[in-house]
From TrEMBL:
InterPro entries referenced in this protein's UniProt entry, alphabetically: UPF0145_dom_sf, UPF0145_YbjQ-like
Pfam families: YbjQ_1
Coiled coil: none
Top-level taxonomic group: Bacteria
Protein family membership: Belongs to the UPF0145 family.
PANTHER family on file: UPF0145 PROTEIN SCO3412, UPF0145 PROTEIN YBJQ
Name the UniProt record assigns to this protein: UPF0145 protein EV148_110111
Gene3D superfamilies documented for this protein: Hypothetical protein apc22750. Chain B
């Protein structure tokens, strides 16, 4: 599957060294994740000692990465070569089930002169 290059994504409203030639609209990638029973038990044990709960951190990182990749695929489908104004959003939609959304504006950019 074709995707926009990760280096062509920014949270800013412009991409340094480039100018927006065409704005193609909002793109998004969404993933929905749940915690497994085993993961919950492992994480519960980690909370007893305090600090970073690595099992949940890894789950969150995977969810964000998957949503980001889906957003890049959506942008490429529209013919974009960059995404500006990129953001993440997350919501718990049921007990232990979280939606992660990556979104931004798909654009065609060209080098600044």
């Amino acid at each position: 599957m074709k995707k926009v290059d990760r280096s062509m994504v920014t949270t800013a409203n412009e991409l340094h060294g480039h100018r927006v030639a065409v704005s193609l609209g909002v793109v998004r990638g969404i993933t929905v994740r749940s915690r497994s029973v085993i993961g919950n038990i492992g994480a519960a044990l980690q909370t007893l000692v305090g600090g970073n709960i690595s099992l949940f951190a890894e789950l969150c990182e995977r969810a964000r990465s998957d949503a980001f990749d889906l957003m890049l695929e959506h942008a490429a489908e529209l013919g974009a070569n960059a995404v500006i104004g990129m953001r993440y959003d997350a919501n718990e939609i049921a007990q232990g089930v979280t939606e992660v959304l990556a979104y931004g504006t798909a654009v065609m950019v060209e080098p600044s002169r």
